[in-house]
Amino acid sequence: MRRLLPDPDGGPLDDAALADAYALPPGRSVRVDFVVSLDGAVTVDGRSAGLGSPGDQRVFRVLRALADAVLVGHGTAAAEGYRPVAADSAVGRLRAALGRPASAPVVVVSRRASLAPGDRLALAPTVLVTCAAADPDRRAALADAGVDVLVCGDGDVDLPLALDRLADRNLRQLVCEGGPALLTSALAAGVVDELDLTIAPALVGGGSRLVTDALPGVVRPRLLQVLEEDGVLFTRYALPDRPERATRTAQAT
Q1: Residues 30, 195: contact at Cβ < 8 Å?
Q2: What is the SS3 assignment for 238?
Q3: Which terminal CB of the chain, N or C, has fewer other CB atoms within 10 Å?
Q4: In the structure, how many helices (H) and strands (E) does the chain have?
């Protein structure tokens, strides 16, 4: 993998250099990690693996290693077979090598508290973010199983409130891995700080797209970085400041 922007040097990036390339300053942040095709598809046959590459897996591991927690919608967690970020996994070993706690919680967002007792994520240290409209018996059963259940909002999940509650648990830097519905909600709420897009050289077609619905206004991210490997581009974009994000940043300092 090599850097194209800024300051292209042509040299390969090892894991330590890749971690430096994606490092964030201290403070609260939500960065979104997606792999997309040239025509904007985010899945092939319902999963993102069909668009992935060895380089994309490296970036995926590095972003998880740098984060305090992984943020994901329940639909994506179920479709992609999410498991806890364990200390003996490749991500866990990389986290330890970078001086981070070896394990990290997965934060599942589900308006209906769809995570069920017995699911592979239904145990500590998983965090479930849901709302008051979710079945209270299911919420109680998940809490009994060791899940940290956060009720944020009444009829739907209040993402800014959820981020405040997560920060109270020292989960301040999050990597959001989708799905598109959660990304759309996060963009609409103004809580996304960075968009990390892997652009796969493929045309897929179909209806699975990065953003699922209209946003309140056009969002114009600013390009920060481009890496390349085997024709795959790895980009970093900063999201424009919004009042909500500026307030969160001020509160965190």
Answers
A1: no
A2: strand
A3: C
A4: 8, 10
**Nearest-10 Cα torsion for 227, 183, 95, 7:** 20
Nearest in space to 172 (alpha carbons), one of 92, 68, 66: 68
Strand, coil or helix: what is 42? coil
Whether the pTM exceeds 0.85: the reply is yes
Q: How far apart are CA 63 and CA 58, in angstroms?
A: 9
pLDDT (tens digit, 9 = 90+) per residue, 155-193?
A: 999 999 999 999 999 999 999 998 999 999 999 999 999
How crowded is the C-beta side of 157, counted as CA atoms within 13 Å?
25
Q: 71 and 30 in contact (C-beta within 8 Å)? A: yes
Asked if 252 and 167 count as a contact pair (C-beta separation under 8 A), the reply is yes
Per DSSP, the three-state class of 70 is strand
- Asked whether the beta carbons of 42 and 216 are under 8 A apart, the reply is no
pLDDT in tens, 25-73: 999 999 999 999 999 899 888 788 788 899 999 999 999 999 999 999 9
From the list 248, 201, 238, 232, the residue with the least C-alpha distance to 32 is: 238
For the record, the structure tokens of 27 come out as 């403070």
Q: Could you read off the pLDDT of 190-220 as tens digits, one per residue?
A: 999 999 999 999 999 877 888 988 888 889 9
Strands 194-200 and 29-37: parallel
**Strand runs (DSSP E) across 136-182, as ranges?**
148-151, 173-176
d(CA 41, CA 184): 15
| pLDDT score of 6 more than 80 | yes
